[in-house]
Amino acid sequence: MQNNNQDSFPRINIKPMGEAETGEDVFLYSLVNEQGMKVDITNYGGIIVRLFAPDRSGRMQDIVLGYNDLESYMDNPAYFGALIGRFANRISGGEFSLGGKKYSLEQNEKEENFANHLHGGSRGFHSVVWEARPLMGVQTGLRLNYSSADGEGGYPGNLEVEVDYILTADNVLRLEYRVETDKPTPLNLTNHSYFNLRGEGRGDILTHVVSLNSEEITPVNEALIPTGEFMSVADTPFDFRSPQEIGSRIKQDHPQLKIGGGYDHNYVLSGAQGELTRAAEVYEPWSGRKMTVHTTEPGVQFYTGNSLSEQPGKSGRKYYRHSGFCLETQHYPDSVNHENFPSVILQPGEVFNSVTEFAFSAEG
Fold first, then answer.
1. Which of 219, 284, 292, 329 has the greatest number of C-beta atoms within 10 Å?
2. Per the omega criterion (within 30 degrees of 0), is the bond before 333 cis?
3. Are the CB atoms for 92 and 223 separated by under 8 Å?
4. 314-334: string of b/e by CB count within 10 Å (b at 16+)?
5. How far apart are CA 325 and CA 334, in angstroms?
């Protein structure tokens, strides 16, 4: 379905993007609203390729990091813009037990002293071709569907996964996730977009001002796996309960900052799980752009692009350390191995429902 009437809103444009390694056709879907905001999404990995948002003068700028071609997204070590699953974030040692059975997953994050399962493995949801269907109604939307077979990635259960990307008339990008299974299985989905509200490729994000609706983080060990404890953010560089520049304390002498080389931590969100509540707000002073995040998830991974290193981006500029930040709404990392964390086990007969909204505005 394609609507090329430039005066008609909402609007969806579709164009070929290439062919996946499997031989499947890949397309780029452009969602446009009447304010001129545009989001480009590909059915390869459910990746948000571009996101244009207005600054204080109404000028549109692409504010997410990424690539210009499909081939680069098929080798996407930073997971730019990707839909992450079956399990977002890390599982310690790639192992968990469920129903008296031990499961071993791919250890696709390896360092000298540890090996973890990261973001669903090398062939996770970020690297498959999704069935796509434009949603034309009051709002612009794209529905992605994927059937994940029992045993895929080492996980139990046949999954039916549906994700809607909806662009509203008031500049909100809404992500709705729905999943069903025929066996008990761990599940944790997120989107891994890197944002730079000044514009993709336009320097670092250290002067962005962030507030997070959280009083605790789940501290991690040297393998970036939660210890199972909860740490108060009070009197630490992790306190973003009031607005703070990202760079104001990122180099402080704190053991948790040293482990990640910056912020790469799960924030425990205040408010009732399952209710759409404010998670974060980010303001960029030069452009005036502001992004507000609401979610039904219990946590959000705040990541400051600590591992980015001279990667070429869409604008021709390279991405360096701290060129973008992520706010990955989620259940806590390694939850399947921590009984004191909110459960990530989806049971047959249940429907997993999750909503995250990214709202964009500008201030003088």
1. 329
2. no
3. yes
4. beeeebeebbbbbbbbbbbbb
5. 21
* 328 carries an active-site annotation: yes
DSSP secondary structure string, 304-354?
--TT--SEE-TTSPEE-TTS-BEEEEESPTTGGG-TTSPP-EEPTT--EEE
Name which CATH class applies to 11-362: mainly beta
For residue 185, give the H/E element and its range.
Answer: strand 185-186
Task: State how far the Cα of 11 lies from the Cα of 297, in Å rounded to an integer.
Answer: 29
Q: Where are the domains of the chain?
A: 11-362
Phi/psi of residue 73, each to 5°?
A: -70, -25
Under a CB-based contact definition with an 8 Å cutoff, are residues 292 and 323 in contact? no
Catalytic residue among 117, 119, 126, 192: 192
For the chain, the residue count is 364
Distances (CA, A) of 231 to 215, 248, 358: 8, 20, 27
Give the global pTM: 0.96
Give the full edge-to-edge strand order of the sheet including 209-212.
Answer: 131-136, 140-148, 159-167, 172-181, 352-362, 289-295, 277-283, 209-212, 244-245
Q: How far apart are CA 163 and CA 7, in angstroms?
A: 28
Q: How far is Cα 82 from Cα 42, in angstroms, rounded to an integer? A: 10
Catalytic residue among 281, 284, 328, 357: 328
* CB-based contacts of 243, cutoff 8 Å, min separation 6: 209, 210, 211, 281, 283
Please name which of 23, 55, 63 lies closest in space to residue 194, comparing C-alpha atoms: 63
Closest CA to 214 of 327, 361, 88: 327
pLDDT digits (tens, 9 = 90+) for 116-137: 999 999 999 999 999 999 997 7
pLDDT per residue as tens digits for the range 237-270? 999 999 999 999 999 999 999 998 999 999 999 9
Q: Decide: 135 and 166 in contact? Cβ < 8 Å.
A: yes
Confidence of residue 311 (pLDDT cuts 50, 70, 90): confident
State the pLDDT confidence band at 3, using cuts at 50, 70 and 90: very low
Q: What is the DSSP string of 208-239?
A: -EEEESEEEE--B-TTS-B-S--EE-TTSTT-
